[in-house]
Amino acid sequence: MKNIKLLIEYDGTNYSGWQKQINNNVSTIQGTIEQCLSKVTGEKVEVIGCSRTDAGVHAKGFVANFITESRIPSDKFKYAINRVLPEDIVIIDSKEENINFHARYCCIGKRYIYKILNRQWKSPILRNYAYHFKDKLDVESMNKAAQYLIGKHDFTSFKSSGSSVRSSVRTIMDAKVYAVEDLVIFIISGDGFLYNMVRIIVGTLIEVGIGKKKPEDIVSILEAKDRQKAGASAPARGLYLDEVFY
Amino acid sequence: MKNIKLLIEYDGTNYSGWQKQINNNVSTIQGTIEQCLSKVTGEKVEVIGCSRTDAGVHAKGFVANFITESRIPSDKFKYAINRVLPEDIVIIDSKEENINFHARYCCIGKRYIYKILNRQWKSPILRNYAYHFKDKLDVESMNKAAQYLIGKHDFTSFKSSGSSVRSSVRTIMDAKVYAVEDLVIFIISGDGFLYNMVRIIVGTLIEVGIGKKKPEDIVSILEAKDRQKAGASAPARGLYLDEVFY
């Protein structure tokens, strides 16, 4: 019996998110990988993911693990699974971990990237990979605002109402907004993220970018612990789970 | 009667190239735009494209024109057409041109971009937007090789055999290869390009990048005027028609 850790990249466009659903007609990343693993190992495998990404969200470095009796060498699993996976999911790496390793519980931090296409016309090429926002964004103000997120804060204002976690306190290690040609890119790393937290932060930073909010308003939004004070949740298609830390 | 010039961006993934085909079951960019223009104007419209991109090739600044009796203001055409176009084709701009303007005959040059994803594992996110090449490419050598293309040359060696143009002499104004993270990007501008010329050049530069050819071999390949001397044609999905000059 061994515990295999997978590093996964996927295009979330055609999936209803990571998590398997009771309705089998719904295509999910977890469900797809589990089906492929069953074919490869002949076992009924349960894959544990590091987080539950929403429909349309992408991942460049998603981590998952599963227990198997299979004799396939750990580092060969990636080839075996990739052969049966659809082309929008790729196993970048597979290796054996300690039997106690758990992709979700052992995770100590994550980095997300959000891409905004900031120009007049929408892009057919990036239509599923960036959020198109027409009005000119003040990237410098957005970056200034992002700095107020760094540190240990109660992020209740940046949490979707559906969420029911015990604590809303999270520590943000780094946050940055910068422009590359007509893309505005937001990078954030933290010890954990609440439901929709990154997308609500982006929605709020966009309000800063168009002058509707000031960078320092982030301080009072955090203090308010009120979802109504923050901006709207930005669309899923601009979001990438970039790296997971253990 | 007026002549409308369109600036078009498209994701070529789901199309059999620009040019309309006799078989109506085949989806083409030209056919799709003509159908949409018929809906918008009520006329049977013929759209003239600046070039015939192959299946899977993308465009960021394709130019086309059409003659119409429609009363829609020239600069409003983009909104009217975009409303009925599928999301993988976008009209960036529309404006009235001199009645003699012809998107193909008036074109004096073009710029193409080719993207190679140069890393071990393939990318599900870029699967339709870059050519995945595993072996490490020597970008400096590739760029050195590209410099030999600049100037007026007979490009017979870089032309697909199917082609039957009068002259194979073209002038390359600029050519450059550089890396951005794990992408190797090739940019080339010239007064014209033969059938598959950019893709054959990329295939040849890749051979330079893996040490199979030397940068200065480009000189003898050009002189040979023999398709067999150049490399294979690189896949369509990495190619973008970037800008067209008039």
UniProtKB/TrEMBL annotation, chains A, B:
Top-level lineage group: Bacteria
Which terms under GO biological process does the entry name? tRNA pseudouridine synthesis
- Outline what the protein does: Formation of pseudouridine at positions 38, 39 and 40 in the anticodon stem and loop of transfer RNAs.
Q: Which reaction does it catalyse?
A: uridine(38/39/40) in tRNA = pseudouridine(38/39/40) in tRNA
Source species of the chain: Clostridium liquoris
Isomerase among keywords: yes
Domain (Pseudouridine synthase I TruA alpha/beta) spans 8-105, 145-246
By its UniProt entry, which Pfam families does this protein fall under?
Answer: PseudoU_synth_1
GO terms of molecular function: RNA binding; tRNA pseudouridine(38-40) synthase activity
Keywords annotated in UniProt: Isomerase, tRNA processing
EC number(s) per entry? 5.4.99.12
Kindly list the positions annotated as binding substrate.
Y112
The record's annotation in NCBIfam families points to: hisT_truA (TIGR00071)
What protein does this entry describe? tRNA pseudouridine synthase A
